[in-house]
Amino acid sequence: MNRSEHRKEKYKEKNHKENKPRYSLRLQFTIIFFFLMLGAIGSCWIINSTFLERYYIREKRIALTQMYDTVNAAAVNNSIDSDEFDEQVKRSAGIENISLIVMDAESATVKLHSTDSAAMGSRLWDNLFGKTPDLEERDTISSRYYLVDELVSEEAYSIRIIYDSRMDLKTMELFGVMDDGSFCLLRTALESIHNSSAIANRFMGYIGIAISLLGALIALLLATRLTEPIRELTEISSRMKNLDFSAKYKGESRTEIAELGENINELSEILERTISELKTANNELREDIERKEKTEEMRREFLSNVTHELKTPLALIKGYAEGLAEGVADNPQSAVFYTDVIVDEADKMNQIVTKLLSLNQLEFGKTEFAMVRFDIVGFVEGCLQNADLLAQKKDIRVKIQKRPPLYVWADEFWTEEVFMNYFSNAVNHCKGEKVIDIHFEEKENCVRVVVFNTGDPIPEASLPHLWEKFYKVDKARTREYGGSGVGLSIVKAIMDQMHQEYGVINYDNGVAFWFELEKDGQTRKG
Fold this sequence. Notes:
57% of the residues lie in helices and 17% in strands. By secondary structure, the protein is of the alpha+beta class.
Protein backbone atom coordinates (compact mmCIF):
# COMPACT_ATOMS: atom_id res chain seq x y z
CA MET A 1 0.00 0.00 0.00
CA ASN A 2 1.53 3.37 -1.06
CA ARG A 3 1.44 6.55 0.98
CA SER A 4 -1.61 7.94 -0.82
CA GLU A 5 -3.68 4.78 -0.26
CA HIS A 6 -2.55 4.62 3.37
CA ARG A 7 -3.65 8.22 3.89
CA LYS A 8 -7.04 7.51 2.31
CA GLU A 9 -7.54 4.47 4.54
CA LYS A 10 -6.74 6.54 7.63
CA TYR A 11 -9.13 9.24 6.40
CA LYS A 12 -11.93 6.66 5.93
CA GLU A 13 -11.26 5.22 9.39
CA LYS A 14 -11.39 8.70 10.91
CA ASN A 15 -14.68 9.49 9.16
CA HIS A 16 -16.10 6.15 10.30
CA LYS A 17 -15.31 6.99 13.91
CA GLU A 18 -16.72 10.50 13.56
CA ASN A 19 -19.92 9.17 11.96
CA LYS A 20 -20.69 6.88 14.88
CA PRO A 21 -23.91 7.90 16.56
CA ARG A 22 -23.48 10.24 19.49
CA TYR A 23 -25.84 10.21 22.45
CA SER A 24 -26.69 13.54 24.00
CA LEU A 25 -25.96 13.76 27.72
CA ARG A 26 -28.88 16.15 28.05
CA LEU A 27 -31.24 13.67 26.38
CA GLN A 28 -29.97 10.81 28.54
CA PHE A 29 -30.44 12.86 31.70
CA THR A 30 -33.99 13.79 30.65
CA ILE A 31 -34.94 10.21 29.72
CA ILE A 32 -33.50 8.78 32.93
CA PHE A 33 -35.33 11.38 35.03
CA PHE A 34 -38.56 10.77 33.10
CA PHE A 35 -38.44 7.00 33.58
CA LEU A 36 -37.47 7.35 37.22
CA MET A 37 -40.60 9.42 37.78
CA LEU A 38 -42.69 6.94 35.80
CA GLY A 39 -41.16 4.13 37.83
CA ALA A 40 -41.94 5.85 41.12
CA ILE A 41 -45.51 6.58 40.09
CA GLY A 42 -45.91 3.08 38.64
CA SER A 43 -44.63 1.60 41.89
CA CYS A 44 -47.19 3.65 43.81
CA TRP A 45 -49.89 2.43 41.42
CA ILE A 46 -48.88 -1.23 41.90
CA ILE A 47 -48.68 -0.85 45.68
CA ASN A 48 -52.03 0.89 45.68
CA SER A 49 -53.63 -1.85 43.57
CA THR A 50 -52.10 -4.66 45.65
CA PHE A 51 -52.31 -3.42 49.22
CA LEU A 52 -54.94 -0.69 49.38
CA GLU A 53 -57.85 -3.12 49.72
CA ARG A 54 -56.06 -5.12 52.40
CA TYR A 55 -55.27 -1.96 54.29
CA TYR A 56 -58.86 -0.79 53.91
CA ILE A 57 -60.24 -4.10 55.26
CA ARG A 58 -57.83 -3.92 58.18
CA GLU A 59 -58.98 -0.39 59.00
CA LYS A 60 -62.64 -1.46 58.76
CA ARG A 61 -61.96 -4.41 61.03
CA ILE A 62 -60.38 -2.11 63.60
CA ALA A 63 -63.32 0.29 63.32
CA LEU A 64 -65.83 -2.52 63.92
CA THR A 65 -63.82 -3.80 66.89
CA GLN A 66 -63.66 -0.33 68.43
CA MET A 67 -67.40 0.15 67.88
CA TYR A 68 -68.05 -3.24 69.51
CA ASP A 69 -65.98 -2.22 72.54
CA THR A 70 -67.94 1.04 72.77
CA VAL A 71 -71.33 -0.71 72.57
CA ASN A 72 -70.25 -3.42 75.02
CA ALA A 73 -69.09 -0.80 77.53
CA ALA A 74 -72.41 1.05 77.21
CA ALA A 75 -74.38 -2.19 77.68
CA VAL A 76 -72.47 -3.06 80.83
CA ASN A 77 -72.95 0.48 82.19
CA ASN A 78 -76.66 0.48 81.31
CA SER A 79 -76.07 3.69 79.29
CA ILE A 80 -77.03 2.22 75.95
CA ASP A 81 -80.33 4.10 75.97
CA SER A 82 -78.79 7.43 76.91
CA ASP A 83 -78.79 10.42 74.54
CA GLU A 84 -75.05 10.74 75.00
CA PHE A 85 -74.54 7.20 73.69
CA ASP A 86 -76.90 7.87 70.80
CA GLU A 87 -74.81 10.85 69.74
CA GLN A 88 -71.62 8.84 70.06
CA VAL A 89 -73.08 6.00 67.98
CA LYS A 90 -74.35 8.35 65.29
CA ARG A 91 -71.02 10.14 65.12
CA SER A 92 -68.91 6.95 64.97
CA ALA A 93 -71.30 5.09 62.72
CA GLY A 94 -71.55 8.08 60.41
CA ILE A 95 -67.81 8.45 60.10
CA GLU A 96 -67.18 4.76 59.46
CA ASN A 97 -70.52 4.02 57.69
CA ILE A 98 -71.45 1.34 60.25
CA SER A 99 -74.95 -0.01 60.83
CA LEU A 100 -75.78 -1.24 64.33
CA ILE A 101 -78.39 -3.50 65.95
CA VAL A 102 -78.43 -4.69 69.60
CA MET A 103 -80.85 -7.35 70.85
CA ASP A 104 -81.16 -8.46 74.46
CA ALA A 105 -81.40 -12.03 75.67
CA GLU A 106 -85.19 -11.89 75.44
CA SER A 107 -85.05 -11.08 71.68
CA ALA A 108 -86.04 -7.46 72.14
CA THR A 109 -84.28 -4.81 70.05
CA VAL A 110 -82.38 -2.51 72.38
CA LYS A 111 -80.61 -0.27 69.87
CA LEU A 112 -80.93 0.06 66.11
CA HIS A 113 -78.98 2.39 63.85
CA SER A 114 -79.50 1.49 60.19
CA THR A 115 -81.37 2.57 57.11
CA ASP A 116 -82.46 -1.05 56.51
CA SER A 117 -83.74 -2.34 59.86
CA ALA A 118 -85.30 -5.49 58.31
CA ALA A 119 -82.00 -6.56 56.77
CA MET A 120 -80.17 -5.89 60.05
CA GLY A 121 -82.68 -7.99 62.02
CA SER A 122 -82.52 -10.80 59.49
CA ARG A 123 -78.73 -10.82 59.55
CA LEU A 124 -78.69 -10.86 63.37
CA TRP A 125 -80.89 -13.99 63.41
CA ASP A 126 -78.86 -15.64 60.66
CA ASN A 127 -75.66 -15.14 62.67
CA LEU A 128 -77.35 -16.24 65.86
CA PHE A 129 -78.45 -19.55 64.31
CA GLY A 130 -75.51 -19.99 61.88
CA LYS A 131 -77.65 -19.91 58.73
CA THR A 132 -75.13 -18.21 56.42
CA PRO A 133 -73.84 -20.73 53.82
CA ASP A 134 -70.36 -20.54 52.30
CA LEU A 135 -69.93 -18.87 48.91
CA GLU A 136 -68.75 -22.22 47.44
CA GLU A 137 -72.28 -23.57 48.18
CA ARG A 138 -73.93 -20.91 46.06
CA ASP A 139 -74.84 -23.37 43.32
CA THR A 140 -76.48 -25.84 45.74
CA ILE A 141 -78.00 -23.60 48.44
CA SER A 142 -80.23 -20.70 47.53
CA SER A 143 -79.71 -17.75 49.84
CA ARG A 144 -79.39 -14.01 49.76
CA TYR A 145 -76.25 -13.93 51.91
CA TYR A 146 -73.10 -16.04 51.58
CA LEU A 147 -69.96 -16.26 53.71
CA VAL A 148 -66.90 -15.11 51.77
CA ASP A 149 -64.20 -15.10 54.45
CA GLU A 150 -63.89 -15.21 58.21
CA LEU A 151 -61.36 -12.65 59.37
CA VAL A 152 -61.60 -12.96 63.19
CA SER A 153 -63.04 -15.70 65.34
CA GLU A 154 -62.93 -14.83 69.03
CA GLU A 155 -64.92 -16.17 71.94
CA ALA A 156 -66.91 -12.95 72.29
CA TYR A 157 -67.28 -12.04 68.60
CA SER A 158 -66.41 -12.95 65.05
CA ILE A 159 -65.75 -10.74 62.02
CA ARG A 160 -66.65 -12.01 58.58
CA ILE A 161 -67.03 -10.80 55.02
CA ILE A 162 -70.52 -11.49 53.60
CA TYR A 163 -71.67 -11.38 49.98
CA ASP A 164 -75.19 -10.01 49.32
CA SER A 165 -76.32 -11.74 46.13
CA ARG A 166 -79.40 -9.57 45.72
CA MET A 167 -77.52 -6.26 45.99
CA ASP A 168 -74.32 -7.74 44.45
CA LEU A 169 -72.05 -6.21 47.09
CA LYS A 170 -69.87 -7.28 49.97
CA THR A 171 -70.16 -6.24 53.61
CA MET A 172 -68.09 -6.78 56.73
CA GLU A 173 -70.06 -7.99 59.75
CA LEU A 174 -69.13 -8.26 63.40
CA PHE A 175 -71.45 -10.53 65.35
CA GLY A 176 -70.84 -10.86 69.07
CA VAL A 177 -72.21 -11.53 72.52
CA MET A 178 -71.72 -8.69 74.99
CA ASP A 179 -70.84 -9.01 78.64
CA ASP A 180 -74.46 -8.44 79.74
CA GLY A 181 -75.67 -11.38 77.60
CA SER A 182 -77.16 -9.29 74.79
CA PHE A 183 -76.28 -9.73 71.11
CA CYS A 184 -75.04 -7.16 68.62
CA LEU A 185 -74.42 -6.99 64.92
CA LEU A 186 -72.19 -4.33 63.35
CA ARG A 187 -72.21 -4.08 59.58
CA THR A 188 -70.36 -1.91 57.04
CA ALA A 189 -70.26 -1.99 53.24
CA LEU A 190 -67.03 -3.01 51.46
CA GLU A 191 -67.94 -2.67 47.83
CA SER A 192 -67.00 1.00 47.65
CA ILE A 193 -63.34 0.12 48.19
CA HIS A 194 -63.16 -1.39 44.71
CA ASN A 195 -64.59 1.68 43.03
CA SER A 196 -62.50 3.99 45.19
CA SER A 197 -59.35 2.04 44.40
CA ALA A 198 -60.09 2.07 40.66
CA ILE A 199 -60.84 5.79 40.70
CA ALA A 200 -57.72 6.47 42.74
CA ASN A 201 -55.60 4.43 40.34
CA ARG A 202 -57.02 6.19 37.28
CA PHE A 203 -56.50 9.56 38.91
CA MET A 204 -52.98 8.58 39.89
CA GLY A 205 -52.31 7.47 36.30
CA TYR A 206 -53.49 10.76 34.81
CA ILE A 207 -51.65 12.83 37.38
CA GLY A 208 -48.59 10.59 37.04
CA ILE A 209 -48.40 11.10 33.27
CA ALA A 210 -48.87 14.85 33.65
CA ILE A 211 -46.26 15.06 36.40
CA SER A 212 -43.85 12.89 34.40
CA LEU A 213 -44.18 15.11 31.33
CA LEU A 214 -43.79 18.23 33.42
CA GLY A 215 -40.84 16.64 35.21
CA ALA A 216 -39.28 15.69 31.88
CA LEU A 217 -39.60 19.30 30.72
CA ILE A 218 -38.04 20.58 33.93
CA ALA A 219 -35.34 17.91 33.67
CA LEU A 220 -34.65 18.98 30.08
CA LEU A 221 -34.24 22.59 31.16
CA LEU A 222 -32.00 21.61 34.04
CA ALA A 223 -30.00 19.24 31.85
CA THR A 224 -29.57 21.98 29.26
CA ARG A 225 -28.24 24.30 31.92
CA LEU A 226 -25.94 21.64 33.37
CA THR A 227 -24.64 20.25 30.07
CA GLU A 228 -24.20 23.54 28.19
CA PRO A 229 -20.62 24.01 29.50
CA ILE A 230 -19.82 20.41 28.59
CA ARG A 231 -21.17 20.93 25.07
CA GLU A 232 -19.10 24.09 24.75
CA LEU A 233 -15.97 22.24 25.87
CA THR A 234 -16.77 19.41 23.44
CA GLU A 235 -17.01 21.87 20.55
CA ILE A 236 -13.74 23.52 21.60
CA SER A 237 -11.97 20.15 21.77
CA SER A 238 -13.33 19.22 18.32
CA ARG A 239 -11.96 22.44 16.86
CA MET A 240 -8.63 21.84 18.61
CA LYS A 241 -8.57 18.38 17.02
CA ASN A 242 -8.72 20.13 13.64
CA LEU A 243 -5.92 22.48 14.74
CA ASP A 244 -8.25 25.42 15.26
CA PHE A 245 -7.12 27.07 18.48
CA SER A 246 -9.13 30.29 18.20
CA ALA A 247 -12.07 29.07 20.34
CA LYS A 248 -11.79 29.73 24.09
CA TYR A 249 -13.94 28.66 27.00
CA LYS A 250 -15.70 31.67 28.56
CA GLY A 251 -17.72 30.10 31.38
CA GLU A 252 -17.83 32.04 34.64
CA SER A 253 -19.02 29.33 37.03
CA ARG A 254 -16.93 28.07 39.94
CA THR A 255 -17.36 24.37 39.27
CA GLU A 256 -14.89 21.71 38.18
CA ILE A 257 -16.08 22.27 34.60
CA ALA A 258 -14.87 25.87 34.71
CA GLU A 259 -11.47 24.66 35.93
CA LEU A 260 -11.39 22.16 33.07
CA GLY A 261 -12.25 24.99 30.64
CA GLU A 262 -9.34 27.09 31.94
CA ASN A 263 -6.98 24.13 31.51
CA ILE A 264 -8.18 23.63 27.93
CA ASN A 265 -7.61 27.33 27.21
CA GLU A 266 -4.03 27.04 28.47
CA LEU A 267 -3.49 23.86 26.47
CA SER A 268 -4.84 25.59 23.36
CA GLU A 269 -2.36 28.45 23.75
CA ILE A 270 0.58 26.08 24.22
CA LEU A 271 -0.37 24.00 21.18
CA GLU A 272 -0.88 27.10 19.05
CA ARG A 273 2.64 28.33 19.89
CA THR A 274 4.30 25.02 19.03
CA ILE A 275 2.26 23.73 16.08
CA SER A 276 4.55 25.28 13.45
CA GLU A 277 7.64 23.68 14.97
CA LEU A 278 5.88 20.32 15.26
CA LYS A 279 4.86 20.33 11.60
CA THR A 280 8.38 21.19 10.51
CA ALA A 281 9.85 18.51 12.75
CA ASN A 282 7.34 15.99 11.46
CA ASN A 283 8.38 16.64 7.87
CA GLU A 284 12.04 16.29 8.79
CA LEU A 285 11.36 12.98 10.51
CA ARG A 286 9.58 11.58 7.48
CA GLU A 287 12.42 12.72 5.24
CA ASP A 288 15.03 10.99 7.41
CA ILE A 289 13.15 7.69 7.23
CA GLU A 290 12.89 7.72 3.45
CA ARG A 291 16.21 9.31 2.54
CA LYS A 292 18.52 6.31 2.90
CA GLU A 293 16.27 4.02 0.86
CA LYS A 294 16.15 6.40 -2.12
CA THR A 295 19.69 7.78 -2.24
CA GLU A 296 21.50 5.15 -4.32
CA GLU A 297 18.66 4.56 -6.75
CA MET A 298 18.17 8.28 -7.35
CA ARG A 299 21.91 8.79 -7.96
CA ARG A 300 22.05 6.18 -10.71
CA GLU A 301 18.85 7.42 -12.33
CA PHE A 302 20.01 11.02 -12.12
CA LEU A 303 23.35 10.38 -13.89
CA SER A 304 21.68 8.36 -16.63
CA ASN A 305 19.03 11.01 -17.34
CA VAL A 306 21.53 13.91 -17.24
CA THR A 307 23.74 12.17 -19.75
CA HIS A 308 20.83 11.57 -22.08
CA GLU A 309 19.34 15.08 -21.72
CA LEU A 310 22.62 16.94 -22.28
CA LYS A 311 23.63 14.85 -25.29
CA THR A 312 21.50 16.84 -27.78
CA PRO A 313 22.58 20.41 -26.82
CA LEU A 314 26.21 19.30 -26.55
CA ALA A 315 26.04 17.78 -30.05
CA LEU A 316 24.55 21.01 -31.43
CA ILE A 317 27.14 23.18 -29.72
CA LYS A 318 29.94 20.95 -30.98
CA GLY A 319 28.57 20.89 -34.55
CA TYR A 320 28.11 24.65 -34.83
CA ALA A 321 31.46 25.33 -33.15
CA GLU A 322 33.23 23.01 -35.63
CA GLY A 323 31.41 24.80 -38.43
CA LEU A 324 32.76 28.12 -37.24
CA ALA A 325 36.25 26.65 -36.88
CA GLU A 326 36.18 25.22 -40.42
CA GLY A 327 34.92 28.51 -41.91
CA VAL A 328 31.52 27.20 -42.94
CA ALA A 329 30.04 30.55 -41.89
CA ASP A 330 31.67 32.59 -44.69
CA ASN A 331 29.76 35.81 -43.93
CA PRO A 332 28.99 37.86 -40.77
CA GLN A 333 25.30 36.97 -40.80
CA SER A 334 26.02 33.22 -40.79
CA ALA A 335 28.61 33.65 -38.08
CA VAL A 336 26.11 35.54 -35.91
CA PHE A 337 23.52 32.79 -36.49
CA TYR A 338 26.01 30.05 -35.54
CA THR A 339 26.99 32.00 -32.48
CA ASP A 340 23.36 32.57 -31.42
CA VAL A 341 22.62 28.85 -31.70
CA ILE A 342 25.64 28.03 -29.54
CA VAL A 343 24.59 30.61 -26.90
CA ASP A 344 20.97 29.46 -26.99
CA GLU A 345 21.91 25.81 -26.50
CA ALA A 346 24.32 26.79 -23.72
CA ASP A 347 21.47 28.66 -21.98
CA LYS A 348 19.24 25.61 -22.29
CA MET A 349 21.99 23.46 -20.80
CA ASN A 350 22.35 25.94 -17.95
CA GLN A 351 18.61 25.80 -17.28
CA ILE A 352 18.68 22.01 -17.35
CA VAL A 353 21.61 21.86 -14.97
CA THR A 354 20.01 24.39 -12.61
CA LYS A 355 16.75 22.47 -12.50
CA LEU A 356 18.54 19.17 -12.12
CA LEU A 357 20.51 20.51 -9.19
CA SER A 358 17.27 21.67 -7.53
CA LEU A 359 15.65 18.30 -8.24
CA ASN A 360 18.71 16.48 -6.91
CA GLN A 361 18.60 18.47 -3.67
CA LEU A 362 14.88 17.77 -3.26
CA GLU A 363 15.11 14.05 -3.95
CA PHE A 364 18.11 13.58 -1.70
CA GLY A 365 16.38 15.45 1.10
CA LYS A 366 19.02 18.15 1.31
CA THR A 367 16.46 20.94 1.12
CA GLU A 368 14.88 22.37 4.26
CA PHE A 369 11.16 23.08 4.35
CA ALA A 370 9.93 25.84 6.65
CA MET A 371 6.24 25.17 7.26
CA VAL A 372 4.42 28.46 7.82
CA ARG A 373 0.80 29.61 7.75
CA PHE A 374 -0.18 31.93 4.87
CA ASP A 375 -3.11 32.90 2.62
CA ILE A 376 -2.85 30.82 -0.56
CA VAL A 377 -5.31 33.06 -2.46
CA GLY A 378 -3.24 36.21 -1.93
CA PHE A 379 -0.06 34.19 -2.52
CA VAL A 380 -1.21 33.00 -5.98
CA GLU A 381 -2.37 36.52 -6.90
CA GLY A 382 1.14 37.78 -6.10
CA CYS A 383 2.75 35.08 -8.25
CA LEU A 384 0.50 36.00 -11.18
CA GLN A 385 1.47 39.66 -10.95
CA ASN A 386 5.13 38.69 -11.32
CA ALA A 387 4.43 36.31 -14.22
CA ASP A 388 1.88 38.44 -16.09
CA LEU A 389 4.36 39.19 -18.89
CA LEU A 390 4.58 35.49 -19.86
CA ALA A 391 0.86 35.37 -20.65
CA GLN A 392 0.75 38.76 -22.36
CA LYS A 393 3.44 37.75 -24.88
CA LYS A 394 1.16 34.97 -26.14
CA ASP A 395 -2.15 36.88 -25.86
CA ILE A 396 -3.40 34.55 -23.13
CA ARG A 397 -6.23 35.67 -20.84
CA VAL A 398 -5.65 34.68 -17.21
CA LYS A 399 -8.65 34.29 -14.87
CA ILE A 400 -8.46 33.71 -11.13
CA GLN A 401 -11.31 32.92 -8.75
CA LYS A 402 -12.14 35.79 -6.40
CA ARG A 403 -12.78 34.59 -2.86
CA PRO A 404 -11.94 35.30 0.80
CA PRO A 405 -8.53 34.24 2.19
CA LEU A 406 -7.75 30.53 2.57
CA TYR A 407 -5.00 29.83 5.08
CA VAL A 408 -2.71 26.83 4.60
CA TRP A 409 0.43 25.29 6.10
CA ALA A 410 3.30 24.96 3.60
CA ASP A 411 6.74 26.22 2.57
CA GLU A 412 6.20 29.47 0.65
CA PHE A 413 9.31 29.23 -1.55
CA TRP A 414 8.64 25.70 -2.78
CA THR A 415 4.92 26.37 -3.13
CA GLU A 416 5.80 29.18 -5.54
CA GLU A 417 8.06 26.76 -7.44
CA VAL A 418 5.14 24.30 -7.83
CA PHE A 419 2.67 26.96 -8.94
CA MET A 420 5.06 28.61 -11.42
CA ASN A 421 5.90 25.23 -12.98
CA TYR A 422 2.17 24.63 -13.49
CA PHE A 423 1.61 28.17 -14.78
CA SER A 424 4.56 28.18 -17.23
CA ASN A 425 3.47 24.73 -18.43
CA ALA A 426 -0.07 26.11 -18.98
CA VAL A 427 1.33 29.11 -20.92
CA ASN A 428 3.44 26.86 -23.18
CA HIS A 429 0.52 24.53 -24.01
CA CYS A 430 -2.37 27.03 -24.12
CA LYS A 431 -4.37 26.90 -27.38
CA GLY A 432 -7.86 27.50 -28.70
CA GLU A 433 -9.56 30.20 -26.62
CA LYS A 434 -6.20 30.88 -24.95
CA VAL A 435 -7.56 31.01 -21.42
CA ILE A 436 -5.85 30.02 -18.19
CA ASP A 437 -8.31 29.60 -15.32
CA ILE A 438 -7.06 29.34 -11.73
CA HIS A 439 -9.45 28.41 -8.93
CA PHE A 440 -9.48 26.98 -5.42
CA GLU A 441 -11.40 24.04 -3.98
CA GLU A 442 -11.76 23.97 -0.19
CA LYS A 443 -11.95 20.42 1.19
CA GLU A 444 -12.27 19.10 4.74
CA ASN A 445 -8.54 18.98 5.54
CA CYS A 446 -6.88 20.67 2.58
CA VAL A 447 -7.13 23.35 -0.12
CA ARG A 448 -6.74 22.31 -3.76
CA VAL A 449 -5.21 24.83 -6.22
CA VAL A 450 -6.22 24.11 -9.84
CA VAL A 451 -4.47 25.58 -12.92
CA PHE A 452 -6.52 24.96 -16.09
CA ASN A 453 -5.51 25.90 -19.64
CA THR A 454 -7.48 25.52 -22.83
CA GLY A 455 -5.87 23.35 -25.46
CA ASP A 456 -5.35 19.73 -26.45
CA PRO A 457 -5.86 17.04 -23.80
CA ILE A 458 -2.86 14.93 -22.83
CA PRO A 459 -2.89 11.41 -24.35
CA GLU A 460 -4.15 8.89 -21.81
CA ALA A 461 -1.06 6.71 -22.28
CA SER A 462 1.16 9.61 -21.24
CA LEU A 463 -0.65 10.54 -18.03
CA PRO A 464 1.11 7.99 -15.75
CA HIS A 465 4.56 9.15 -17.00
CA LEU A 466 4.14 12.92 -16.70
CA TRP A 467 5.92 13.07 -13.35
CA GLU A 468 8.96 11.09 -14.48
CA LYS A 469 12.21 13.00 -15.00
CA PHE A 470 12.91 13.99 -18.60
CA TYR A 471 9.59 12.62 -19.89
CA LYS A 472 8.13 14.66 -22.77
CA VAL A 473 4.72 14.13 -24.37
CA ASP A 474 5.60 16.03 -27.55
CA LYS A 475 9.39 16.16 -27.85
CA ALA A 476 9.39 18.45 -30.87
CA ARG A 477 7.11 21.02 -29.23
CA THR A 478 8.99 20.75 -25.94
CA ARG A 479 12.21 21.44 -27.73
CA GLU A 480 10.56 24.41 -29.46
CA TYR A 481 9.88 26.32 -26.21
CA GLY A 482 12.97 25.06 -24.42
CA GLY A 483 11.37 22.53 -22.08
CA SER A 484 13.59 20.05 -20.30
CA GLY A 485 11.03 17.56 -18.99
CA VAL A 486 12.14 18.24 -15.43
CA GLY A 487 9.52 20.76 -14.25
CA LEU A 488 6.81 18.27 -13.29
CA SER A 489 9.43 16.04 -11.64
CA ILE A 490 10.34 19.00 -9.45
CA VAL A 491 6.63 19.42 -8.62
CA LYS A 492 6.44 15.75 -7.67
CA ALA A 493 9.54 15.97 -5.47
CA ILE A 494 8.29 19.11 -3.68
CA MET A 495 4.79 17.71 -3.05
CA ASP A 496 6.23 14.41 -1.81
CA GLN A 497 8.46 16.30 0.60
CA MET A 498 5.41 18.17 1.95
CA HIS A 499 3.40 14.91 1.96
CA GLN A 500 0.55 16.39 -0.07
CA GLU A 501 -1.39 15.25 -3.14
CA TYR A 502 -1.06 16.49 -6.73
CA GLY A 503 -2.31 15.42 -10.14
CA VAL A 504 -3.70 16.19 -13.58
CA ILE A 505 -7.19 15.98 -15.10
CA ASN A 506 -8.03 15.88 -18.82
CA TYR A 507 -11.01 17.80 -20.20
CA ASP A 508 -12.42 18.01 -23.72
CA ASN A 509 -11.21 21.58 -24.11
CA GLY A 510 -8.00 21.50 -22.05
CA VAL A 511 -5.97 20.21 -19.13
CA ALA A 512 -6.03 21.02 -15.39
CA PHE A 513 -3.04 20.46 -13.12
CA TRP A 514 -3.68 20.61 -9.37
CA PHE A 515 -1.93 20.38 -6.03
CA GLU A 516 -3.17 20.33 -2.43
CA LEU A 517 -1.92 22.02 0.74
CA GLU A 518 -2.87 21.31 4.33
CA LYS A 519 -5.69 23.63 5.41
CA ASP A 520 -5.28 25.69 8.55
CA GLY A 521 -7.94 24.95 11.21
CA GLN A 522 -9.10 28.58 11.37
CA THR A 523 -10.02 28.79 7.66
CA ARG A 524 -13.71 29.51 7.15
CA LYS A 525 -15.80 29.27 4.01
CA GLY A 526 -16.69 32.59 2.50
